Amino acid sequence: EYFASIIGYTGQISQEEYDALSEDDKKRYSLSDTVGKAGLEQTFDSVLQGTKGKTTVYVDNLGRVTDTVSRKEPEAGNDVYLTIDKNLQENTYKLLEEKVAGIVLAKLQNVLTYDPSNVSDSKNLIIPVGDAYYNLIGNSIIDTGHFVKDDAKTAEKAVYSIFQPKREEAVAAIIAQMQNKDAAAYKDLDDEMKGYMDYVCDTVLTKNTGILNSDLIDKNDDTYISWAKDEVISLYTYLNYAISKNWIDTTKLGENSYSSSEEIYQEILNYLQDYLKNDSSFDKLLYENLIKSGSVTGNQVCAILYEQGVLPMDESAYNGLLSGSIGAFSWLTGKIQNLEITPGQLALEPCSAGAVVTDPKTGKVLACVSYPGYDNNRLSNVMDTDYYVQLSTGLSRTFYNRATQEKTAPGSTYKMMSSVAGLTEGVIGGGTYLPCTGEFDKITPSPKCWIYPSAHGSLNVVGAIQHSCNDFFYEVGYRLSRNNGVYDSDTGLEKLAYYADQFGLSDKSGVEISESAPKVSDFDAIRSAIGQGTNNYSTVGLARYVTTVANSGNCYNLSLLSKATDADGNLIADYTPTLRNTVDLKQSTWDAIHQGMRKVVEDKDYYKDLTIQVAGKTGTAQENRKRANHALFVCYAPYEQPQIAIATRIAFGYASDYAAQVTKDIVKYYFKLEDESSLITGTAESTNVVQSAGD
Length: 695
Fold this sequence. Notes:
The protein is of the alpha+beta class. 40% of the residues lie in helices and 14% in strands. Strands 9-8-22-21-20 form a five-stranded antiparallel sheet. A three-stranded antiparallel sheet has the order 5-17-18, with no helix packed on it. The protein is globular and about 75 Å long.
């Protein structure tokens, strides 16, 4: 699980993979071959593959070999060596898991349902335990298909006895709602029926079957707007209108011909009635409603974990859950604390994290961690199909590499780059002090500093990085955007994009596995200067950026690979990272950036016990006001002569301090500043230190 996101797995070549090969490669492969399916196994399959042997023989009429004409021995493939530090990779993974578990415990509350819409600050959002109970089913940790088997146990049978009539009732209610031409508008339905209507329209009819063809829908149509945005009509009205506009693909309903729109609509209802009764995703929606209404209890769900062998049987705890003498909430928090149930299994927000550690002197990647991982041994060669389906459909998206594929806004980790742009373009100097009043009033609407309604006062660039002052960088973005004395956002965006490219943020980092392309902001220079706008980067992209900062200007194409040798150990390829470009800045500019980053860390009480100096920058990226913010931290150490650079992101991790805390532990591990057994405990990490998440 520690290495699967890098190495990938192997399996028999598919017809599609074989057909995609060049004519020369087709001579080397056959449809019985084992090939790389993901990760480096896939990227370097042609390097790792050996050469087949061949024997030519004479046989008699019974097929017995009578003579061997010729024989060519098979040749072993080449060996690929990685730059990855095995122990650092494993223990970074464990540290991320412990920290994410700690955040979950800190935010988990014993309520079944929760409405986040009234929360003004996302750091105050909670995680309702109802989400955790349901996600054990939604994330396919619990196999609901086993509930109907002959060997189903007590809790499984009890839950299914509640579920079965609920499914019949729900399907009947959906069809009745959709048959009623006088049905209430969507906005007037209760939450449960809204969920059903959303599922039927968006998931079944549009996404899964294509009966409602989204490519044909006119998004500016008044009736469409009444349904999708204003919510003032029923699904009955919307679908009948869709039929009249030919937005319905009747070929997806079968071979029948239809003489009227009424016949088409009735056929849609017939189709849905059959579809929903055999739809596992709809079943999960029903289980979610049953759990959050309390009809299926947390005690029953937790007991099933014992019944299905997800956890080793503990008769005392199992019977306590069934009888109610043990509360499900306290039982669950205990299991999370001990990592017997992991964040990856719960698939809550947060449930994932990524971290990349590099050598800033060379651009080599020492660790590239994606949490949660998976057991690639269960997928290689003879695939465990059930396990693959669980991973593919699970809510925690285990195949999605959090280090190289997941992208978010960089938040305030971007401010070193904005500082470089401002200093190099001459719109500010090292001794320039800019005022922070808490609100930047040169544009409307006026963006605010994270400290608003307070203010930072007057700051230079070092202090602005240290305090992550938005007002300072709004002003930098504003000044970069002046064209003949007039504010022009495109001018500022062009300058910011130039410096983003200098730090490697405009293209992929170079690592040899699947990586998402970055997005340099093309909207709103002022907000882009604080790492918002449309900026969007992967963790490995931010790792290349902070690596360039750490070594004062050498921007490398990062690499996971060291070398390749043949079977006899002879070097056939050297994968030493190449230098992409050099960022040529005044020493005073580098000094200001490094000093600001050092002061960021000096302000963190939880870093004061380190015996080496670290320089870093926190970042908080908001994606949705109803969801927790993403937590980011980039750093390098030691401050005087950097040996490592690190980028860490905890998606929906609430506050950047959490990312900074776990990164501190990675630094401690790498430099052996604390005994491993006390640093990596196998239990959820405490999250008792949280400063402002406004950066």
